[in-house]
Amino acid sequence: MKQTHRSAWWRSVAVLGLFLLIAAGCSSDSDEGESGEPSPTTEVAAADPAGVVKVGYDIREQAGGGWYFDPTKAKSTVHDGFYYMLYGRLLRQTLDGEFVPDLAESTTIVDGSTIEITLREGLTFSDGTPFDAAAVKAGLERNLAEADRGVMTEGFYGLTGVEVTGDTTLTLTIADGKAAGWHDSYLAGVQTTITKPGQTDFSDPIGAGPFTVTSYQPDSGVTYAKSDSYWDAESITLGGIEIVQVPSDQPASSSAALQAGQVDLALTDATQLSALTGAVELFTQGDPNQTQGMQMCKADGPLSDARVRKAINMGIDREGLGEAVFAGTAAPQTQLWPEGHRFNNPDVNDVLAYDPEAAKQLLADAGYADGFDIDLYVVAGVNGTESAEVIDSQLAAIGVSTNIIVPANYVTEFLNPPRPGMGLFPGNAAGRAKLNQFSGSALANVCSYQNAELDTLVAELATVSDSSDEAVEIWHQIEEIVVNDAANGFILFRSRLAGYNTDHLGAVALWPQGTVTVPDPRGTWVIAGS
After folding, report:
1. Which of the two residues, 74 and 493, has the higher pLDDT score?
2. Shortest CA distance to 236 belongs to which of 481, 441, 60, 51?
3. C-alpha–C-alpha distance, residues 351 and 274, integer Å
């Protein structure tokens, strides 16, 4: 596999294809178009502006909390990318974590309690209805009133007021001086998705995004067509997206669909690399938000002792796991951010590093010299079951025996209501959302872990911008706490892996938020005549 490296692993993008190598999330010397999106470095085929990419994707009700066109009904944010396709966003986040204007022309953090938003002139929903300040107010208030707080996260409800100040301008009031953090956490997120005011029947959803939905068959497929009414339609390099149902927990099905030409792009994992042959090749994208981690119920039992949690972390050979299961496409994780990232705290990089002898001593100090048994719930797919088997073997060497459980629904069988034990899952929380597993009332915070010092820092982080020096210092303090307390199992930073058909696709870029494979409509294109 060919790798293109920038400043660190997490900034690398490798596209193995006949046509081009693109750099996504590049450093400042990258070749970027006007939209700020990565551009091809080599182009030997013309793009078809009407081209449709077929994506193998899981839209079953039991996968990812179900498929809904109404964002207030979402049971998770896993389908974030396809919400964007339909509804657009006020801001759009890039792979680097930067925010670029989308439906909003500009946003301004006036003070600790105030955000001003100016929309672009002349915006409309796909049916011609004005997308104006009044529509944004109605959409935000609807989300506050109707959405699931566990999905939207508690911080979103810090929005206490929305005032229309003109046809295209409005002012948001944020509680507790947290305007800067709210701005960075939610204006580019699914929480601020704006639906058409008054729409209650979402069988024919109406949005202001780059695509419209033209057909939908539950548990089978969805067809999106490019919307000419979208303000930035010229930058959209796809004429349409066709979702073909492929189960995410059966990676061999993705490979078979790719080889049969039923799909052009699909999620894959390391077990399928040998199956990506002929015109089907591998796309990899390093991402500091894609992880493999272990959620721990710290309420009682062995996991209530930080020494035990440290021992479990120190009993995992991350390098060996990455090679054995992920074919070297993953990097060890021992804190929230990878080495090279501005939020990484170098002082704690080795606190939870692999050290089986130290792990055994910690278990003995905690009263578990003879070890113990514990349930390990596993999200199927994204190499979860293969990783669980390796982790089971590694932890057995320090005396911890895992009972591997692969539930049909990880959320309802482990997270809600919470069960004792650990959960191995493919994390995709971006930025501040990483902290939901340690603070607040989100489902990710298994068994409602609380640390008063950490909660204070999380609240303090909400008052500053991600681009500030203050944010760096606060993140470093947060990592001191969650690492030294071993608040969860830190395992791997994963690359996002997808198979794609090089006979049909001239370039691939993935939507930067979420675990699943959603094409970025500004960096993915279809070869003319293919």
Report:
1. 493
2. 51
3. 36
